């Protein structure tokens, strides 16, 4: 197959990437791995790339973010190429659909509506437009359209946001805290009965209420948990370094020593924060 000059043109933009994708999927001259893929097999990579974008942003790794955004863009191109091969739609259809959606959802920018409104009012308008779009797709239920494949904690948060819009919500966070205490007691009772299925159910109930508390406090639970995961990694790695200075590994230590080092690392972090304040 004659080489398309687009492939080697660094200034060709999105058309270069689309041509590269077409070549990778070419049944005669493409990459065997790429040819074998389908929507289901690529979907996990798409999710993974989205999380890597979020991770780069959280770490403020801007040079890495450039690459991660490219990886995520490539996922869209991959899905669009497979869709075109199957006769569903093209990448240009994806671009057109997204552009039309953004114009329709921002009448205060691209239409005649006034821009003189608060962010809160713009959010209400956005949700009203999205509700009308769902109704046009015969998605009339309050919870329709909340993606089933979202991470469970994030989906719980979004489901509760939807329910709250129609008044199914506690009036303030104090009621949610009371419910957390109740759910924790039910989990403890299930643990005592040693029924694994019941323990799992009660644990899920507790997580669901915790997601609701996050919403009442204005916290996105996935972001909060990612932040805590990063903090745990940072502190545990510091423990490993301190143990290494003593000629030890975690396996050669014990809980009491590692717990004392954990407190030491926390104190050092707080001292650094106080210096920067």
From TrEMBL:
It catalyses: ATP + H2O = AMP + diphosphate + H(+). Residues 37-110, 176-235 form the NTP pyrophosphohydrolase MazG-like domain. InterPro entries: MazG-like_dom (IPR004518), NTP-PPase_MazG-like_C (IPR048011), NTP-PPase_MazG-like_N (IPR048015), NTP_PyrPHydrolase_MazG (IPR011551). Its EC number is 3.6.1.8. Coiled coil: none annotated. One of its GO terms (molecular function) is ATP diphosphatase activity. It is an enzyme of class 3 (hydrolase). One of its GO terms (biological process) is TTP catabolic process. Belongs to the nucleoside triphosphate pyrophosphohydrolase family. NCBIfam families: mazG, PRK09562.1. This is Nucleoside triphosphate pyrophosphohydrolase. It comes from Jhaorihella thermophila.
